[in-house]
């Protein structure tokens, strides 16, 4: 079972200090030094991205993709392998540096950036955006801005695939990573996107972990 204790400790510590996103860099630094575990760094592409693409492949030639909270780079590298001109960003400089080191011949453009204050030239710039794990590690108060910015990355006709831990609105929020509600994901439609598909399923991919309820949703932006 993955050890999330240090990540939770750092998240709480930085939140108390008024810096609710500062802990990511600290965790990656500790992970690089072998002192902590980055619990979402599986060193392989997200399986729910892979099986989605297997069932719903899309044209990639001449199209751009963006990976949000790219971690150590596996999802971004997969998008590039499928043919996208891929940009990937993470708030952690250490995560970006490690990604470049892991993939020295990469075609991916790795950039350190903050989802809450992204580069302005990314607005309406991408044909495909992939988000998994980022929203669920942000405090609830920060998610509306993160969702709005994510929706803003799509050009007309662009697609957004979101994968997140899930809960009912009546369930306790629990510990970080905080599962999202259906209503929170519906904020993407409020931000101007059309929901094309929505799945609610149990993730049994890791035999060392209890089953995890997840949402997987596909959205499109059309002017």
Descriptive overview:
The chain is of the alpha/beta class and 223 residues long. The chain has one domain (43-220): Vaccinia Virus protein VP39 (Rossmann fold, 3-Layer(aba) Sandwich), CATH 3.40.50.150. It has seven helices and seven strands. The chain has a seven-stranded mixed β-sheet with strand order 3-2-1-4-5-7-6, with helices on both faces. α1 runs antiparallel to α2 and α6 packs across α7 (182-190). The radius of gyration is 16 Å and the shape is globular.
Structure in a nutshell:
This protein is an alpha/beta fold and 223 residues long. Helices cover 30% and strands 24% of the residues.
Count of β-strands: 7
CATH top level label? Alpha Beta
The N- to C-terminal Cα distance equals 45 Å
The CATH topology label is Rossmann fold
Q: In DSSP terms, counting alpha (H) and pi (I) runs of 4 or more, how many helices?
A: 7
String of helices and strands = HHHEHEHEEHEHEE
- What's the pLDDT, averaged over the residues? 96
Shape: globular
List the helices and strands and how they pair.
Elements: H1 5-16, H2 23-32, H3 47-55, E1 64-68, H4 74-81, E2 85-90, H5 93-102, E3 109-112, E4 126-132, H6 143-152, E5 154-165, H7 182-190, E6 194-203, E7 212-220
Parallel strand pairs: 1-2, 1-4, 2-3, 4-5
Antiparallel strand pairs: 5-7, 6-7
List keywords for this structure.
223 residues; alpha/beta; Rossmann fold; seven-stranded mixed sheet; globular
